[in-house]
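User: Okay, second chain of the day. Same drill as before: sequence in, structure tokens out.
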Amino acid sequence: MDGLRILYFPWEGLSALLRALSLSGAAGNALAFFLYVCISLLPAAGLLLILRKERRGFSGADVWLLVLSAYTFYLLYAFINPVLLTYHFPGRFEGADLAKDVLPLMKSVFAGLWLTILAAWILLTLNRKLRQEEILDRKEFLYRGARALLCAVIALKALTVLFTGWQEVAFGILRLKENAGATNWDYAALTLHAVTVLIPEGFLLMVLVQMLELLKALRETGFDRAEVKAARNLAGAATVSAAVFCSLIWNGALFFLSGKLMHLDYQWELSLSPLLTAFGALLLARYLRAAGELKQENEMII
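Assistant: Same drill. Structure tokens below.
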């Protein structure tokens, strides 16, 4: 459950501060209530500032910021008074350790909904902007938006890969320690599986970083040989080869070591993502080459 704490630790800190202020006396209680209202109204206040800055009317996506403000009132109050969380406990948690097992899960559910509402507003707002007719003329906005989104994807992918790999190894070691018959071969197999999973993911991250280089080339020079080269680099054989050979190594190791292992969680895997990326990159390279040739012909005619 500790891994879920990243979803709700800001609310824990805020609720602890407000609770302490509320219990400090009449003045502290008034200040806590004032801060509670101000924090809860931040999404609605942000919406008013956005409408004023962009000089536009209210859109359907903006409803979610109002919903977010309303939900923040309840969320923050529930964190200040955790007894409210008990009303949502699943029945299967009866008799479980309240502080260790139940509260972290319910806090994650509550905080996760807050993040989902915020993400819904962001994505729907971006979708509305992308459907505007003049969007194709806003070259800088498109490139900056694509770059920011790609950087976010790279960061999230890297964190997910590291966290998943660490979690798999940590829990695997715990399971093996609980198994009195576990041998060194079991630890070796656990390590090998983690490595064969992380290597293809690492190459996929390199592909995403290469996409940043492609965006940079497109932004600076348009259709040129540099863009075609960058697009072809996305289709590098190393990514596909890494996925294929890691799969062969892992399945081959299980074939030869299965008789020596005391604990085995087997899942057959074949990742087609690198191959799909390669095909998409080659199609993009072909388009860029054709567009570059057409541009050169037009310049020669002029």
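Residues 137-302 form one domain.

User: Thanks, on to the next one.
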